[in-house]
Amino acid sequence: MTRQIVSVVGGKDATSTSTYQSTNPARTGEVVAAVGLADADTFAAACRTAKEAQREWAKVPPPVRGRVIASIGRLVEANAESLARLVTEEIGKPYAEALGEVREIVDTCDFFLGEGRRLYGQTVPSEMPDKNLFTFRNPIGVAAVITAGNFPVAVPSWYLVPALLCGNAVVWKPAEYAAASGHALYRLFAAAGLPDGVLNVVFADGAETFRGLERALEEGTVQKVGFTGSSEVGRKVGELTGRHLQSACLELGGKNPMVIMPDADLELAVEGALFSGFGTAGQRCTSLGTVIVHESVHGEFVERFARAVREAAIGEPAGDVLAGPLLDQKFADRYEEYLTWIQPHHEVVSGPTGRITADNPRGGFTGEGGLYYHPVVVDGVRPSDQVFLEETFGPIVGVTTFRTLDEALELANLPGYGLSSSIYTTDAANAFRFREGVSAGMVSVNNSTSGAEAHLPFGGNGKSGNGSRQSGMWVLEQFTRWQAMNWDHSGRLQKAQMDVADITPDLGFRL
Predict the structure, then answer these.
(1) Co-location of 230 and 348 in the same domain
(2) What is this enzyme's class at the first EC digit (predicted)?
(3) More confident site: 165 or 502
(4) Which pLDDT score is estimated for 150?
(5) Is 459 part of any domain?
(6) Measuring CA to CA, how many Å separate 303 from each of 25, 143, 267, 288, 503?
(7) How far is CA 229 from CA 226, 236, 414, in A?
(8) Which pLDDT score is estimated for 452?
């Protein structure tokens, strides 16, 4: 029986204005869920509901809120296999990857359990006697969180867990094509004992969400916006929040470079390029964009990489495969456009391109009836090429060459993104020069461009984001506001910078 899911506001099912069919991209005729879509009014109403609920939630002591987060982690852990299977069914992510994604939620909860006892402020010395200065972290209020569907449960947890821990209420809008996974995650959070209205989930399309968010910002019911998605939409969200003197937490796309130095372990580099380029069918914000290979090892690397891609298992995501289908038909349509960026001066070294069909087969393919595409490696990419400069969300990786590390850094930074990056080298000097010169917010040495850990800052610069960071203690800056307090117990008015004791030095003194 097809799942029927709708938005939940204040603990109650909300009305819908239309229905979206979430389908299995591995078998496109299979409907995973009938999703009731809400309108802008429902989104704005959810923000008002969250505002009311947040007042009481903020009064709950942070260590107690931390225990709620711990309960969420235990519930997710107990339901890990069921949740991972649903993710695989709904977006076609290989089951092993989906299980790892669920594990990331548990890791995030484990980390933030402790942060409930570490929402520290400071005691600051005053310049005047009989006066104490303090700082406090306060919750921001209501966070509106909008997430993509390529990581339908892990990435939302990066927002939801710290936001709730800090005493905020949340209105969360998951991607429509991953709505069943989002609804399941909401139910696990609710089962941990969150009061009604503290976490609300609204399913809506992009246009209605934007209208609802605009209204909520005008009404003053949203104090923080978190957005994960494309750079194009991220700009619009940033512009909207900026008009209301807010700074959104933006986690956007990437064109992530991997530099292969002459001294690199090529076998290891090929393994890293294969996983970061084609895991999740290349549909990660941290997916490999361009391999920048030193000219002395270019030929050998390309030969090894192309062979690894040709031999990689593609197909049914419930099996042991590198990649399954693309997430949804709209991503398949967009990927077809990316393939038109391949030019006559390029060389496709990986074999066939396009959708995998009986007329366009792939050896060892195990899928059937889904949005499956051949993984593509394009050699001979030039810095002026569209395939070099723009994000290609899907299973396509470009390869180019360099002579010096300075040239490699220039190529790595040229597209203007700044999310993730990687260098393969056995020379520490190369690794640190790369770290200093690359614009990316995240750097890997002898590892792939993909792979976040719950206690490290995640985020990018340039077209990849506005410098905000998720994960670890750094995300607390997104969901708290600093408050300064001075307490004068001298019994008199002491004026800062005016009533300060002056000890006069003898600046003319010489030995």
Answers:
(1) no
(2) oxidoreductase
(3) 165
(4) 96
(5) no
(6) 31, 49, 11, 18, 74
(7) 10, 11, 21
(8) 81
Catalytic residue ranges: 251
- Identify the DSSP state of 38: P
Q: Whole-angstrom Cα distance, residue 402 to residue 425? A: 14
DSSP 8-state assignment for residue 282: G
On whether the CB atoms of residues 396 and 387 are closer than 8 A, the answer is: yes
> Which tens digit of pLDDT belongs to each residue from 442-499?
999 999 999 888 899 999 999 999 999 999 999 999 999 999 999 999 999 999 888 8
Domain region containing 328: 256-445
Token duo for residue 505: 């030095």
The verdict on residue 274 lying in a domain is yes
Mean pLDDT, the chain, whole residue set: 96
My answer on whether 120 and 86 are in the same domain is: yes
pTM above threshold 0.85: yes
Counted domains in the chain? 2
Same domain membership, residue 300 and residue 407: yes
Side-chain half-sphere exposure of 39, counting CA atoms within 13 A: 5
Phi, psi of 64 (to 5 degrees): -70, -40
* CA distances in angstroms from 167 to 55, 174, 485, listed in the order given: 9, 21, 20
SS3 content of the chain, % helix, strand, coil (to 5): 40, 20, 40
C-beta separation of 261 from 254 below 8 A:
no
Same-domain status, 405 and 291: yes
| pLDDT at residue 322, rounded to an integer | 97
Transcribe 378-436 into DSSP letters: EES--TTSHHHHS---SSEEEEEEESSHHHHHHHHHTT---SEEEEE-S-HHHHHHHHH
Query: For residue 345, is pLDDT > 80?
Result: yes
